[in-house]
Amino acid sequence: MNEKINLEDIISLCKRRGFIYQGSEIYGGLSGTFDYGPLGVMIKDQVKKLWWKRFVDDRSDMYGVDAAILMNPKTWVSSGHVGGFSDPLIEDLKTKKRYRADHLLESAGFSVSGKTLEDMDKMIKDNKIKSPDGNDLGDVRQFNMMFKTNIGAIESDENTVYLRPETAQGMFVNFKNIQDTFHPRLPFGMAQIGKAFRNEIAPRDFVFRVREFEQMEIEYFVDPKGWEVSFENFQNEIKSFFNDIGLDKDRLHELEIPAEDRAHYSSRTVDFEYDFPIGRKELCGLAYRTDFDLKAHADGSKVDLSYFDEENKERFIPHCIEPSFGLDRAMLAILSTAYTVDTLGGEERVVLKLAPSIAPYRIAVFPLLKNKQELTDKAKEIWQGLRNKASSMGISPAKIVYDETQSIGKRYRRQDEIGTPICLTVDFDTLEKGTVTVRDRDTGEQRLMKVEDLEDLIR
Ligand code: ATP
């Protein structure tokens, strides 16, 4: 692990090179929002593709959906979010700044495991805990994290709707549709990637805790007899997926959540934590949610959400296993794992050691000099030739970039900082002997290669 790395270095690289910007920056930003720039979009897109491939396309038991963000508000009553999707809020009585009471207690060295709102209130008062600004704190109270808006032209309580705080419910409400249209046998799952919104009391740590984020979730329906097999299978799949996107297995930790800290409906939860520059924190979760959700929606909607097992002639409500990934936290894990400072040729450099499968570009093509037309023409010809063959090499043409700005040294630095695994330079030897100089991002080593061998190299 690269011990020196702090979050500020990553934030600064993200802005400098166009991965992630502050949301609405020219207006001073909007707390808890970030905008992904071109290179951030390229990584994110690739992560989503790899996730979808592993969890949907490569399996025969998964159904993809893309549900609406706005849902009938009764959904959130049945799911328990209207009643209980809240965090413990506490206010600095002087500055009026708001904090998460559990976070303040944890930073003061107390464990909040299994503690109720009242317990936390008492702990803060008994231990005379002050706000980070040193002021007195008010009482701990519940704060519902769902964003509210109105549907239609009239603003009233009757037409209040919520921005979904998770993608999961969009799958539960489509359970019957999938059964009626595709008649799947258990076990089967539904998968969805999409935006979720939470009015976090204190968004912080860059894209780790934001108010608008993207989730990749699965609801996997099983017969309650033998749910353990599917649960363990997902545990392994999750680890393999994190390996696919280049995370470090030594920084990934599985945390078995004790019964007193689990949601009341969950019989087993494993959180996957990662060593971020801000410490060890939740990256994704895996929960066995029993039949809680389908039962709650069947009760709330008065629609039968049971399943008929033809073999045993049995009708029951399937149980559910939910792997839930946060894409923005995965991005932070990727960037902080890849971010490296090393010395090359006596100079310190920043290099993003991204897995080639998720690097924004696979290869950058340069002419040695930009003011020699024979070199720029040749470099552009090679670049275009590789782009034309990109799909046969299994990559998008956008993964092959051309760059002739500034000096060759600066181009190498730039490509190192954005994680391009290979740079290819066209020089006078290319014109005469058909060779190019190929430079490896991680070692800085350069070697000569025949133009016709480049395809194999990229593959
Ligand atoms: P935390 O305890 O850190 O607030 P959580 O347990 O509430 O997270 P879940 O409800 O399990 O999170 O959501 C599933 C996943 O969605 C999380 O593992 C995380 O990757 C992501 N996620 C949740 N809240 C946020 C957020 N505010 N910003 C970015 N990602 C988030």
Q: Your description of this structure?
A:
It is built from 15 helices and 23 strands. With 459 residues, it is an alpha+beta fold. It has helices at residues 7-17, 38-57, 74-78, 81-84, 101-107, 117-126, 168-172, 175-182, 227-244, 292-301, 327-338, 373-389, 408-417, 428-433, 454-458, and strands at residues 20-22, 34-36, 62-64, 86-91, 98-100, 141-144, 148-150, 160-162, 188-197, 212-222, 252-256, 268-276, 279-290, 307-309, 314-316, 319-326, 339-344, 347-352, 363-367, 400-402, 422-426, 435-440, 446-450. The chain has a seven-stranded mixed sheet. 34% of the residues are buried. The protein is 32% helix and 27% strand. The longest helix has 20 residues, at 38-57. The chain binds adenosine-5'-triphosphate. Adenosine-5'-triphosphate (ATP) binds next to strand 10, strand 13, strand 16 and helix 11.
Unreliable sequence segments: none
Strand order within the widest beta sheet? 3-9-10-16-13-12-11
Termini distance? 29 Å
The overall pLDDT average reads 94
Number of strand elements: 23
List cofactors, ions and other ligands. Answer: adenosine-5'-triphosphate
Q: Give the structural class.
A: alpha+beta
Number of helices: 15
Strand % is 25-35%
Shape: globular
- Whole-number radius of gyration? 26 Å
Tell me about the largest β-sheet: 7 strands, mixed
Helix content: 25-40%
